[in-house]
TrEMBL record:
PANTHER family: 3-KETOACYL-COA SYNTHASE. The active site is at C169, H248, H337, H341, H370, N374. Belongs to the thiolase-like superfamily. Chalcone/stilbene synthases family. The chain crosses the membrane at residues 6-24. GO terms for cellular component: membrane. One of its GO terms (biological process) is fatty acid biosynthetic process. Residues 335-416 form the Beta-ketoacyl-[acyl-carrier-protein] synthase III C-terminal domain. One of its GO terms (molecular function) is fatty acid elongase activity. CDD domains: CHS_like. Signal peptide: none annotated. This is 3-ketoacyl-CoA synthase. It is an enzyme of class 2 (transferase).
Length: 468
């Protein structure tokens, strides 16, 4: 009879233990791991050298002297080097009349090269993929690009598919967030994220300064990422997702309109970059940091920052002296590496300054911009690959990714390195020893400085001009 009361007393404890075990098991399978990733390196015949960039500019007969000077200044100050890649139709001189087939071939070249390499590296079959997320912002076809991948690789009929468009440069964290949420509801899944941008139909052939700038910054590239929540594959994983935050300012008129696809006065389609873009980006960036900082930084740093902020407010309140220096939060207390979006030299400089980063911290982003340009949503993966090729990523390190995109959006995430990572034959393998170079100054102005001597009233592009 004494066992009955004892059993009744144990029931609540058993229920508590059961709930604890279920929660523990659920959290084990909710982790989001990166097994491997593969960045795209186009063939050398697609390189846009300084010499060829000059040819492309000269081919646009709509440009006047002022437009030429504007493009020269943009290219010289962009931080982009001699070995970036462009779409084939530009290299063939057909940028004024691209076709849908050009855009599809551009994507097929990327798909077949990168996804094939990723499957070969990991030994995973296309039939084992449970979730497919494809992000190509500027190209929408029917059947979709995701369907094109499924058809080529003969993937399963029950695969979960997400085809993202219009997300811009910040789409990679969005794709990861989709996979992360699916992983929370189902166990033992494998997901493939494919991210790139189509430049063939997005190349702007007009003369509007707010739209022609994109031709100077965006280059061909892409990345395929394989993720899983299988506990059995934990030891093989490269990274584990710790935290992800998305900030969207689309409700604000100035943020919504600062970066958008539109037609110019002549009907040419392109991406308009408004003058208030830096302001919109700064606002989104600050709001994103406010939300993610408490989730990724140690308590001691948050307390230090809060205390200094309080002291500053009290000091200003009781004294008439000038404002004291604003406290700066030290993100390096919780982050080892910074994977910054290569939106341009100004973007890297601004983010580095706001986060108080050293030149060592921003080097991966600068070198990625120099070697590959701005490859839109895939840029941050080239930056990550640079860190890996330089053998910077050690087990336990925290890597902070941040990207910006039209909308206006700022998305960020924190990854934990699961094992020491070496070069592993990634996209930087062939030339990593040459980076960082002694100088990244673009020689464009030296080669095309003759434009500065031209008279605006008589200027024309000489058809027989020989490029130095």
């Amino acid at each position: 009879m004494d066992l009955v009361p004892m059993f009744l007393y144990c029931i609540p404890l058993l229920c508590l233990f059961y709930n604890f075990w279920i929660t523990f098991e659920r959290r084990r399978y909710q982790n989001c791991y990166i097994l491997d990733y593969e960045c795209y390196k186009p063939s050398d015949d697609k390189k846009l050298s300084t010499r060829f960039c000059g040819e492309v500019i000269r081919r646009n007969k709509q440009l006047g002297l002022n437009e030429y000077k504007f493009l020269l200044k943009a290219i010289v100050s962009s931080g982009i080097g001699e070995d970036t890649y462009g779409p084939r139709m530009v290299l063939e001189g057909r940028e004024m009349s691209p076709t849908l087939e050009d855009a599809i071939i551009e994507m097929d070249d990327f798909f077949l090269d990168t996804i094939d390499k990723l499957f070969n590296k990991t030994g995973i079959s296309p039939s084992e993929i449970d979730v497919l997320v494809v992000n190509i912002s500027m190209l929408t076809i029917c059947p979709s690009l995701s369907s094109r991948i499924i058809h080529h690789y003969k993937m399963r009929e029950d695969i979960k598919v997400y085809n993202l468009t219009g997300m811009g440069c910040s789409a990679s964290p969005i794709a990861i967030n989709i996979v992360q949420n699916i992983f929370k509801t189902q166990r033992n899944l494998q997901a493939l994220i494919v991210t790139s941008e189509s430049l063939s139909l997005g190349w702007y052939p007009g003369k509007d300064r707010s739209m022609i700038l994109t031709n100077c910054l965006f280059r061909s590239g892409g990345c395929a990422i394989l993720l899983t929540n299988k506990v059995a594959l934990k030891e093989k994983a490269m990274f584990r997702l710790k935290c992800l935050v998305r900030t969207h300012h689309g409700a604000k008129d100035e943020s919504y309109a600062c970066c958008k696809q539109m037609e110019d006065d002549q009907g040419y389609l392109g991406i308009h970059l408004g003058k208030n873009l830096p302001k919109a980006a700064t606002r989104a960036f600050i709001d994103n940091l406010k939300e993610i900082a408490p989730k990724i930084l140690p308590v001691r740093e948050l307390l230090r920052f809060s205390l200094l902020t309080l002291i500053r407010k009290m000091t200003q309140k009781h004294t008439k002296t000038g404002a004291a220096a604003r406290p700066v939060i030290n993100f390096k207390t919780g982050i080892d590496h910074f994977c910054l979006h290569t939106g341009g030299k100004a973007v890297i400089d601004a983010v580095g300054q706001n986060l108080n980063l050293s030149e060592y911290d921003v080097e991966p982003a600068r070198m990625t911009l120099h070697r590959f340009g701005n490859t839109s949503a895939s840029s941050i993966w080239y930056v990550l690959a640079y860190m890996q090729a330089k053998k910077r990523l050690k087990k336990g390190n925290k890597v902070f990714m941040i990207s910006f995109g039209a909308g206006f959006k700022c998305n960020s995430c924190l990854w934990e390195v699961m094992r020491d990572l070496d070069q592993d034959g990634n996209v930087w393998k062939e030339f990593i020893n040459n980076y960082p170079p002694k100088t990244i100054t673009n020689p464009f102005l030296e080669k095309y400085g003759w434009i500065n001597e031209e008279d605006p009233d008589t200027f024309h592009v000489p058809d027989d001009y020989v490029i130095p």
